[in-house]
Amino acid sequence: MKKNLWIFAAAAMMLAACSNDDTIAQYEGDAINFRTIVEGLTRASSTSDVTTENISSFNVTAFRHGETTDPYINDAAYTKSSGTFTCTTKYYWPSSGTLDFYAYSVNSAVASQVAKQAYNSFTFTPATAANSTYADLVFATKQDIGKSGTYTNTNSLTASYGADGVPLNFRHTASKIAIQVKNTSSTMKFSVDGWKVGYLDGEGTFILSESSTAGTGTLAFSDWSANTTKSADTQYSSTFDATAIAAEASATPLSGEFILVPQRITAATAYANSGTPAANDKVNGAFIAVKLKIMNNDTNSTVIVDDGTEGHGTVWAIWPIGDDGSATFNWEPGKRYTYTVDLAGGGYYEQNKDTDADLDKLLDSAEIKFVEVTVDTWADQTAIDVPAIVPAP
Questions:
Q1: What's phi and psi for 151, nearest 5 deg?
Q2: Spatial contact of 103 and 111, defined as CB atoms under 8 Å apart
Q3: How many other CB atoms are found less than 10 A from the CB of residue 222?
Q4: In CA terms, which of 31, 133, 193, 302 is 20 to 30 Å from 225?
Q5: What does the pLDDT look like over 325-364, one tens digit per residue?
Q6: How far apart are CA 303 and CA 170, in angstroms?
Q7: Pair 262, 202: CB distance under 8 Å
Q8: What is the reported pTM?
Q9: To the nearest 10°, the Cα dihedral for 40, 46, 49, 51?
């Protein structure tokens, strides 16, 4: 018994000695966790958008402040639980110094459209198939953050990064394109069953720049580098059941919104006038198009413009969009562009209808009119003797 007590006493002395040994220590700080918002929530009108309400997970990389190698956290997945985002593997605040955080999230159904290159770099290739669901890549950064630092939370109260979590403001990295149509004519009406936008860069690379490290506000346009192969064949389209646009109809949103690569948009001015016949049919710049047929606003709904088939199908009508030569126009990151098209303006045939390169209008604003209406006088007919026929009694 005395021997056992001696062993216990010796063990206690060893533990006491270890407690003062600087080479053995266990950090008992708070685990790093996050709280999120997604900037531009009011612009999130599509089920494909990442929003504050539906974001459920994101990935985080962290470095000691000012460093970009040897990550403190390396692409760790954080998931939502009771309003806070935590990681299965616990990461704790360093005992000294601060951290720079980089986080991203993509709506999981279409994550294949986004390829991660580095902690702050991604390649984006939106799907070109009709009626696709589009990836929404959102990105957040928070710089020079320490456990003991404080901030004002959404309830206007002072909160601590260590105790309450790090707030991350995610920003949409791409551009969203939508359309609505109206009809200012009282004499025409339309049937619409699709729309698209074309002659674009189909791929781009996002790299966070120093000008975008504030963590709030839209990302810089210069954070994107698009490829240089703009093509009339790079198109994004939405088709749907025929929608009637009545005479003098106010703006009507059309189904489908596209999340696309931020880029400079240069408007179409003509058809291609060299190359193969197929190439000659394509326009030379950016356009938005509506698939429609045009009818008189009469009881018979007489068709004015269609695809020429017996069933009077719809035809693509285009409107040039973007830089008109006098100013540069860009699709900026994190912004939604809603184009309002007045169908009564006519638009142009998507494909070349003539031998020259000029865009051909669907409507030449030429109403059918009649002038100098005359009625011929009765023409004299030489008399012919015709015996009268008397019916038999």
A1: -150, 165
A2: no
A3: 12
A4: 133
A5: 778 899 999 999 999 999 998 899 998 888 788 899 998 7
A6: 49
A7: no
A8: 0.84
A9: 50
C-alpha distance from residue 118 to each of 15, 69, 206, 261 (Å): 45, 11, 10, 18
Which residues of the chain fall short of a pLDDT of 70? 1-29, 40-47, 227-228, 365-370, 374, 377, 383-384, 386, 393
Structure tokens at 171: 């920003």
- The phi, psi pair for 117, rounded to 5°, reads -100, -40
Would you say the C-alpha torsion 203, 208, 212, 218 has a positive or negative sign? positive
